[in-house]
Every structure is written in structure tokens, then in C-alpha cells.
């Protein structure tokens, strides 16, 4: 199955993971992960270092093969055995390093490796398509003939996101898109994410920044030690999210449970004596 050319209905379930696990030899990077992404929503994926975010992104990008579980795209079970297959199924990824060519201009970067038509590398056509897409995204790029080297971090992120949209994916995964950005550029990228959502794509946003996540995400999925540790809404407090990420809430709960167990043991002992 290749991804349909017509956009999915708003709110349609486009990606469904159940019980997804990934082991690297003896290391369990992911275990029993469930994840749903709908058309026109931003799902944030958060978690501490080593929580399994990048591994999950790589599984969905067709870079790593899961060792267990199922992945469905628009209701159909799929095997994402290569990055090409993931793209074919409408799952695009903007990796953290962006992989842009500094010396090439914006148009050349947008169409790198996907020039329109085998013989018709029509510069005019590509430039028009580039402008249309960037305008649609209200991107602040001074000129599409500007080399990427002269763009700001936010503008580069915009080019990378626009490039992944050229194939009209159903899902776009962004790995730490604001990590290296200042306040104004971060706001620009968050606006861009909202416009991508408005176009009907499902967005998976990986971020360490809780403010960014709470600003744009419809749902926030917490990973901890390779497992799901709660799904939250954007109005969840910063403290609550941090507690889920670090396991602080779980610690206080488990501490209380442990204390209770101790008390019960003591009572039992007293009864026996
Ligand atoms: N190729 C690999 N081989 C072996 N272990 C790996 C590999 N990739 C990831 N891991 C392990 O899987 C676990 C999850 O790592 P992952 O990179 O997915 O975390 P992350 O949430 O992206 O962390 P960070 O926020 O630091 O980027 C870690 O324990 C990591 O060491
Ligand atoms: Mg990572």
C-alpha cells in the first residue's frame, strides 16, 4: 500500500502503534509502546535522555526495525523496512542535523534528490513550487536564491520542514526543531508547526522544551526508560510533566506503597508475636 494522494479526513487516525519494542542486543530501548497520531494534530514526544525518543523516531523513519509490536498506517499494518518505504507510506522525518547543503540555495536544497521529472530539472518550475510552498507556510525567507549558509537557524529549520512537505506526507516527525534557536526564531518555528498542522498533516514533535511543547501540542506523550509513562493535554502543568518525565510522581507513589507494605509487615509481625 502506498499512501493515498488525497489528504486524510481531519481527525482520522493515520498512525497507530501497539506494543512496539526495540532491543539492541541486551539493551531494551523501547518496550510495549502505544502511540496514536491523527490528521491535523501535533503529538509531542518527550522524555529524559535515553528515554527512547530517537529510537522511536528511527523505527518510524524505517531506519531501525522494531523487535516486537505492530504499526498501522491509515488502518493498514505496515513494515517500515527502509527509509524509502516510510516515505512512500507518507511518513517524513526532519532529523536534528537537518542535512542541508550550505553552499546551495533554498530551491536547490528543497529539491535535492527529488528534482521534478528525470529530464526536466526545470529551474523555473522548481522556483515557483518553492515560493508557493514557502508562502503557504508564511515562511520568512528573504529569497529562494539565497544560499543556506546565509540563513538563520530558524530559517534553516523552515527550509528543512518545507523540503519534507514537498512529498505531501501524512505524518511529519520533527526531532528537536527548536533546540538550537533563540526566542524569536523558536516562535517562528512554532508558528510554522501550527501551519503544518492546519494543512492536515499529523505532526510528531520531539522536544526537551516543555514551554514549546505546551504551546503547540494537542497531546503530550511521555516516554520514560523506553516505556509509555502517560499521555497528557497541553494544559498539564510544567511540574506534572516533569514528574512524569523524571519518574518523580512514580517515586512518591512507590515510596508511599513501600511504606504501606512495611507497616503491614510490622502489623503482621506484631499479631504473630
Ligand atoms: N544503536 C544503538 N545501539 C545500542 N543501544 C542504543 C542504540 N541506539 C539507542 N540505544 C540505547 O537505547 C536507549 C534509548 O536511546 P535514545 O537515543 O532513543 O534516547 P533519546 O530519548 O533519544 O535520548 P536523548 O534525549 O539523549 O536524545 C538508550 O539506552 C541508548 O543507549
Ligand atoms: Mg535522542
UniProtKB/TrEMBL annotation:
Keyword Cell inner membrane on entry: no
Keywords: ATP-binding, Nucleotide-binding
Compositional bias per record (Basic and acidic residues), positions renumbered to this chain: 260-273
Keyword set includes Signal: no
One Pfam family hit: ABC_tran
Region Disordered, residue ranges: 252-273
Domain ABC transporter: 15-250
Lineage: superkingdom: Bacteria
Any GO MF annotation of the entry: ATP binding
TM stretches of this protein: none
Protein name according to UniProt: ATP-binding cassette domain-containing protein
Source species of the chain: Paracoccus nototheniae
Amino acid at each position: 500500500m502506498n499512501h493515498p494522494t488525497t489528504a486524510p479526513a481531519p481527525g482520522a487516525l493515520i498512525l497507530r502503534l501497539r506494543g512496539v519494542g526495540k532491543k539492541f542486543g541486551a539493551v531494551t530501548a523501547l518496550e510495549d509502546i502505544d502511540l496514536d497520531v491523527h490528521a491535523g494534530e501535533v503529538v509531542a514526544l518527550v522524555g529524559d535522555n535515553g528515554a527512547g525518543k530517537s529510537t522511536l523516531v528511527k523505527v518510524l523513519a524505517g531506519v531501525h526495525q522494531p523487535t516486537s509490536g505492530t504499526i498501522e498506517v491509515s488502518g493498514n499494518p505496515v513494515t517500515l523496512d527502509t527509509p524509502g518505504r516510510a516515505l512512500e507510506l507518507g511518513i517524513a522525518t526532519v532529523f536534528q542535523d537537518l542535512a542541508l547543503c550550505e553552499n546551495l540555495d533554498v530551491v536547490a536544497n528543497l529539491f535535492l534528490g527529488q528534482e521534478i521529472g528525470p529530464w526536466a530539472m526545470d529551474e523555473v518550475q522548481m522556483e515557483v513550487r518553492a515560493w508557493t510552498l514557502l508562502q503557504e507556510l508564511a515562511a520568512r525567507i528573504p529569497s529562494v536564491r539565497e544560499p543556506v549558509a546565509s540563513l538563520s537557524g530558524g530559517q534553516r529549520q523552515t527550509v528543512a520542514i518545507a523540503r519534507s512537505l514537498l512529498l505531501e506526507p501524512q505524518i511529519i516527525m520533527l526531532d528537536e526543531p527548536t533546540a538550537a534557536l533563540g526566542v524569536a526564531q523558536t516562535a517562528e518555528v512554532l508558528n510554522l508547526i501550527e501551519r503544518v498542522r492546519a494543512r492536515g498533516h499529523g505532526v510528531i514533535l520531539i522536544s526537551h522544551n516543555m514551554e514549546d511543547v505546551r504551546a503547540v501540542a494537542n497531546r503530550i506523550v511521555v516516554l520514560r526508560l523506553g516505556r509509555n509513562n502517560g499521555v497528557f493535554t497541553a494544559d498539564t502543568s510544567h511540574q506534572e510533566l516533569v514528574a512524569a518525565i523524571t519518574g518523580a510522581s512514580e517515586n512518591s507513589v512507590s515510596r508511599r506503597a513501600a511504606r504501606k507494605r512495611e507497616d503491614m509487615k510490622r502489623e503482621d509481625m506484631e499479631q504473630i508475636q
